[in-house]
Every structure is written in C-alpha cells, then in structure tokens.
Amino acid sequence: MFSSLCRTHAPRLNRMFVAKQTTCQTPEDQCKQKPKTAIVMLNMGGPQNIDQVGDYLLRIMTDRDMIQLPIQGKLGPWIASRRTEEVQKKYLEIGGGSPILKWTNSQGTLLTESLDRCLPETAPHKHYVAFRYVPPFTNDAFDELERDGVERAVIFSQYPQYSCATTGSSLNAIADFYRGRSIPKNIKFSMIDRWATHPLLAKVFAERIREKLLAFDDDVRDDVLILFTAHSLPLKAVSRGDTYPHEVAATVANTMIELNLKNPHRLVWQSKVGPLPWLQPYTDDAIKAYAKQGKRHIILVPIAFVNEHIETLHELDIEYCHDVAKEAGIVHIERASTPNAHPTFIQALTDIVATHLRCGPAVSKQFLTRCPHCVSQRCHSSKEFFKSLCSEVPCRDTYIPSIPTIVMTEPTKT
Ligand code: FES
Q1: What Pfam family is a match, any one (predicted)?
Q2: Percent over 90 (pLDDT), the chain
Q3: Looking at the domain 2-45+99-196+341-389, which fold is it?
Q4: Which one of 26, 87, 275, 349 has the lowest number of neighbouring Cβ atoms within 10 Å?
C-alpha cells in the first residue's frame, strides 16, 4: 500500500515514515494509542440481518430529509411495515444482510493505516462509522470519538456526490446530536462533503469497467453499451436545485475520459420509490428499450455507490441483469463491481482526506450555499450550525498529493 500510494514522493514520505517509526513503531502499535484524528465515515447503512429491516425502513420513511410524504407520521410507518416482508426476502436472497458495514470498516481501516504512513503529525488516525438508518448510528460515532479524546475530527461523507437527501440528511443528524448539548471545545471539526470529480474515483470506476469488458467477445467489445446507473431522486428535489444529478454526471464524464474508449454510454436512474415522478430514464426501462434498438451487450456501472449493498446485489444483479435482461432478450450483460477495497479507491480516499487535513477548508462554500428553491428552516439551521462547528486549522505542508486534485469544494489555501 505504502509503495503504491506514495511512489511519486517516496524519498520524502520514506523520511516521514522513518520519523513515525521512531515514536510509533507500526500501525498496530498506533491502534493501541489514543487516536489523535477521527475520520467519521457517513453513510446510510443497511440491515445486518433481517430483524433490522423493519426499523431500517421505518427510519427511512420517517426521515423528511430523505423522503417527503403527505401525513408522513402516519404514512411513513404504514409504508415501512407494508414493505418489510418483501424487503426481508430480498436480503435473504443476498445472504441475509447488507455488506455495507463490512466494506465501510475495511475501507476505514485501510484508509487510516495509509494516513498514518503519509501524515505522521496527525496520527494515530481512527475511523468511526456513522450510519443514518441502522447501527452504528451517528450518535454512537460522536459519543465514541468524544470518549476517545480526539483532537481533530474530519466528517467525511461516503457519498461521492452530494444530495440534500443523503449527505444532507446525515449532516442534519449530526446537528441534531449537538442540539441541546455542548460542543467539545478541545476538538477541531471539519467536513468533506463531496468528491465526485476526484481523478482517482474516475480511475477506479474505469478499472472496474475494464475488468468487465474483458468478459465480452472480441468482436463486440468495442460496441458494448456502458450504462451508468445511480439512485434516482424525486423531480421535486431536482427542481429545488439539488446538486446530485450534475455531480453524478460529472463522475460519469470523468470516468469516460479516464477510460478513453469509444464505447457508447448513457446515465440512467434506479430505485424509485412511491408514486411521485422521479428522475428518468429508469435503468430497467432503458435495458428493455435498448434491447428493442438492437443494443444487446451491456455493462451496468453503479456510479454513485462505493460499496456493494441491496441496490447492487439485488436490484442490479438479480432483478435487472437476470430477470429484466432475460425477458428483454439481452445477449450479454455484466455489472461492474463497486469500488469496495480496491487499492486505487483506498488511494483516492487517502488523497482526499490527506489533502483536506493538510490544507482543506474546514467547511466548503458549496455546502454552505442552499438550493435556490430551498425553504427549509432545517437546512438553514444545519448550515449555520456547521459554519460555527467547523473551524479553520493552520495548513500543514507534509503531505504532497501524488496527483492533481480536482475536488468540488473550495480552492486550496496557500
Ligand atoms: Fe437543498 Fe435545503 S433542500 S439546501
């Protein structure tokens, strides 16, 4: 990991590594020490077992940041309970639970080990998982990092593309946690709210696509349709000005540039819930329509998920790649893996956090700017809260990114 992550700055980083060894010996020894820097990994989470499915759905359906229903207090619980059995069956078909906690912990462990090597002055780093709808919850993560007595906490969204419904909801949960209790004065907080255009994110998606292209016959490989698919969003949220659709499109464009192939591609949307109109075209409809147009060799690329969960393992693999594709007469369909613990992805996470720790803005102006048609008092208070929570820290110059970084936040301060 060290050699691949830091190869372009090996002499300098080798010096740092030696310096760290003097005091800390190995990453294992560091684990036993009190952590100095917390990396709080935000995500929605997924049920570990089918007993958690009911509560998971209930929390989603009653979260107005995620979904807005009429008479939500009554309709939300009713929908959750009506869907529980059907969703439990889906989890049973993928092995009985979501692997999202397993992948997030693997990513967190590899990321913090890598940071310990590259940034000894902020080490030891420790990751904390903060899920929105299943344990470990946001509150658990913040209770733990306060108990650990960290000096610095980086709130790191694991959604590369920002949406007020996903990252926004997780951040509101942090604001809720600190409502009515004092903010620890000894911790410096900062936030990474989006990273849709990081070059190494495009690189890992391109590598995942190349892996699957090899499965196609030579004579069709150049014509395989690359169908990028992301979780859809209600059109109401799009019209309000949510940045998610254009950030997803930016990741797609960067991935195609990185891939440097002439294959056709499109961006389509999956996982619509409820009767209201959502962003289209839907992934299953697109597969059927392309089959009719004679495009029968397809790779599905989940472009907004960084680890496997129900939407990839069930919706894409079982429902679309098997059932829908078979019915539509698709000749060959593959699904690209999510980044998971791919070394390039760990390198991406390391570069994003290390650059932020070195000299990132404590909170981005992009985050602090509300959607043009947002009228939510909750959004307003949340942004005010983070403006005061996240404090600037002096720039450090130890870490030098190995690639030009294009993150959709503030320009780096010098
Ligand atoms: Fe986007 Fe309020 S809905 S900032």
Answers
A1: Ferrochelatase
A2: 82
A3: Rossmann fold (3.40.50)
A4: 275
